[in-house]
Design a protein that fits this description.
five-stranded parallel beta sheet, disordered C terminus, binds thymidine-5'-diphosphate
């Protein structure tokens, strides 16, 4: 067994599963970084489950299509948040929890912080209700690590538009204006500042390999005791 797998297994027979979430504005490079981290983790022999929100299970993907088409926007931000939470409940119960139970590392492209930022802060849904909804969906569960990929809104939007090309229409949230996306960036940074033990901000303007390396170091330090190993 290699070092990563050995540390994750620890003293018990069953490896300890983890949930790592990736958050940030549009075009921050979350999916690329999840792919790179998945590959690196998989090389260590750990089971990796890469997933996304909204979505990740057939039922949640149906809700995704509905929400991102814009058909739910007339419900208002709290109504949309309820639908995101419904998708999250299925995603968590059917995919994430069993994977963690097996000892896998789950990498989720967005999670509950997106509801806080998009529907809560930017949608101005009442924070108390957004917090209650989070409690309903997840109880006391929080990701073991949340990586906030930070990028200026204008750069992120340009990247997102370039990636999508001309043939696809922007989704419900890509259609929002630049001030919305700047607000989102601040919202994610504020969430990270309010929960520094859980959240780490990574500069997503840096070259892809540097971002990947920064993320790897965070994962190593958190879950593999790399700091202790280096200090020893
Ligand atoms: P997606 O194409 O996955 O966007 P991105 O590549 O930026 O992650 O679409 C997901 C969209 O849904 C994205 O604009 C963020 C939004 N969203 C919310 O508004 N609330 C949520 O709780 C989640 C999970 C996503």
């Amino acid at each position: 067994m290699n070092q990563v797998a050995a540390v994750l297994v620890g003293q018990s027979a069953r490896p300890k599963g983890r949930l790592i979430t990736f958050e940030g504005g549009e075009g921050a490079g979350k999916s690329t970084q999840i792919r790179l981290l998945s590959q690196r983790l998989a090389q260590t022999g750990v089971e990796v489950v890469a997933t996304r929100e909204p979505g990740g299970t057939p039922r949640a993907e149906k809700l995704r299509d509905f929400i991102l088409s814009g058909r739910a926007s007339s419900l208002g931000p709290l109504g949309e948040a309820v639908l995101f939470a419904a998708a999250r409940i299925d995603h968590f119960d059917a995919l994430i929890a069993p994977a963690i139970e097996r000892g896998a590392i789950v990498l989720s492209d967005r999670f509950s912080d997106s509801t806080r930022a998009y529907q809560g802060v930017m949608g101005e849904a009442e924070p108390r209700k957004i917090a209650l909804l989070e409690k309903v969906a997840l109880g006391d569960l929080r990701p073991d690590l949340t990586i906030v990929l930070d990028i200026p809104a204008k750069v992120g939007l340009e990247r997102a538009f370039a990636r999508r090309g001309d043939h696809l229409a922007p989704d419900r949230f890509e259609r929002e204006d630049i001030s919305f996306h700047e607000g989102l960036r601040r919202a994610f940074l504020n969430i990270a500042a309010s929960e520094p033990d859980r959240c780490c901000v990574v500069d997503a303007l840096a070259p892809q390999e540097e971002v990947a390396q920064a993320i790897w170091q965070l994962v190593e330090a958190r879950f593999l005791g790399a700091n202790e190993a280096h200090a020893a």
